[in-house]
Amino acid sequence: MKIAIVSGKDEGPTKLNAFDNALSNAGIGDVNLIKVSSMLAGNAEIKQLPKLKAGAMVNCVLSEVTSDNPGDEITAVIAAAIGEELGCVVETSGINENYEDLVDEAQMMVKYMMNKRNVEIKDIIIESSTTTVENIASVVASVVYLNDEIIE
Question: How many domains does the chain have?
Fold first, then answer.
């Protein structure tokens, strides 16, 4: 199994446009995202995000938050733990929450999921995006599941 881990942030004239712009900033704005739960195959390989086919149906785990309250600090965090037998992905987000606390929460959750399954962790990858809202902003972090059908 191959995955890419991406993040993005941006502003826009509406909440939807801010979210769309953040997805584009992350490199996943021109595809249809299908939210899936949080499991990876064993020994998942992390790759750079390749060019995806426009309109492709792309499985992902997505963390996102959008705010139209100027001055809000918004953060999206995703954590992936990889083991030989399987891997787990978690997402969390917050508005005006301590960045380190959100990262710690994601790390704790993904470690718990792996421990609950009695799977030794080989690697943990944490990706995040954070910004201070000027007008209307959105942040995203995502694990994108890659396959040949979606790659240009």
Answer: 1
Distance CA 142, CA 3 (A): 10
Say if residues 81 and 114 touch (Cβ distance below 8 Å).
Answer: yes
**What is the distance between the alpha carbons of residues 81 and 4, in angstroms, rounded to a whole number?**
13
Residues 110 and 89 sit within 8 Å (Cβ to Cβ): yes
Q: What angle do CA 94, 145, 125 make, to 5 degrees?
A: 50
CATH code of the domain covering residue 135:
3.50.20.10
128 is catalytic: no
58: pLDDT confidence band, cut at 50, 70 and 90?
A: very high
pLDDT, tens digit, 9 for 90 and up, residues 87-142: 999 999 999 999 999 999 999 999 999 999 999 999 999 999 999 999 999 999 99
Residue 48: its pLDDT value, please? 97
91 is known as an active-site residue: yes
Q: Given the residues 7, 21, 64, 91, select the one marked as catalytic.
A: 91
Would residue 37 show up in a list of annotated catalytic residues for this protein?
Answer: yes
* Structural domain boundaries, residue 7: 2-150
**N-term to C-term CA, the chain:** 18
